[in-house]
Amino acid sequence: MTTTTASAVAPLGTADAEALVTAARRAAETAGVAVSVTVVDAGGHLLTFRRDDRAVLISGETSNRKAYTALQLNAPTAVLVDAVRPDGPFHTLPTALDRPLLFIAGGVPVRRDGRLIGAIGVGGGAPEQDHAFATAAVEALV
Predict the structure, then answer these.
(1) Fewer Cβ within 10 Å of end Cβ, the chain: N or C?
(2) 90-109 tens-digit pLDDT
(3) How confident is the model at residue 67 (pLDDT cuts 50, 70, 90)?
(4) CATH topology of domain 14-140
(5) In this structure, are residues 106 and 123 in contact, taking their beta carbons and an 8 Å threshold?
(6) Residue 108: other Cβ atoms inside 10 A
(7) Does the pLDDT value for residue 85 go beyond 90?
């Protein structure tokens, strides 16, 4: 009899979350953009949040929702934008849940060894900038 054992993958921890925030903020600072950054674990629980002093207040809420959306759908929010258009397959999804999703670029899942372990959301810049900052942070996490 052959048994297969799934290898354990380390969860996203606070040190990882801080590294993601630092990398995202560094990318944003280089571009001259003030942002808010949210990191959630695989259960959608907040690990860390940071808002630059100059970031618009709503960026805190958008970064939270982007992270949560990327986690729940296991996809970058940038690729989900068309799915919620009136003729899209997820057009009712933004209002169907208790916790609101946000389909604006800037949320990116975080994976380790191919497994979903959390997500990062960035708000404050243009959507394509937020996506780039979040992606840079995930790529920097090794």
Answers:
(1) N
(2) 777 766 666 788 999 999 99
(3) very high
(4) Beta-Lactamase (3.30.450)
(5) yes
(6) 30
(7) no
111 C-beta neighbours (distance < 10 Å), count: 16
Place of tokens 């995930």: 138
Task: Provide the pLDDT for residue 14.
Answer: 96
Q: Per the structure block, which two tokens stand in for 39?
A: 């990191």
Q: What are the boundaries of each domain within the chain?
A: 14-140
Q: Which residues of 47-73 are buried (b: 16+ CB within 10 A; e: fewer)?
A: bbbbbbeebeeebbebbbbbbbbbbbb
Cβ pair 99, 72 in contact under 8 A: no
**Distance (Å, rounded) from C-alpha 48 to C-alpha 14?**
7
Q: Please name the residues in contact with 20: beta carbons below 8 A apart, sequence gap of 6 or more.
A: 37, 39, 48, 110, 120, 137, 138, 140, 141
Residue found under tokens 């921890």: 13
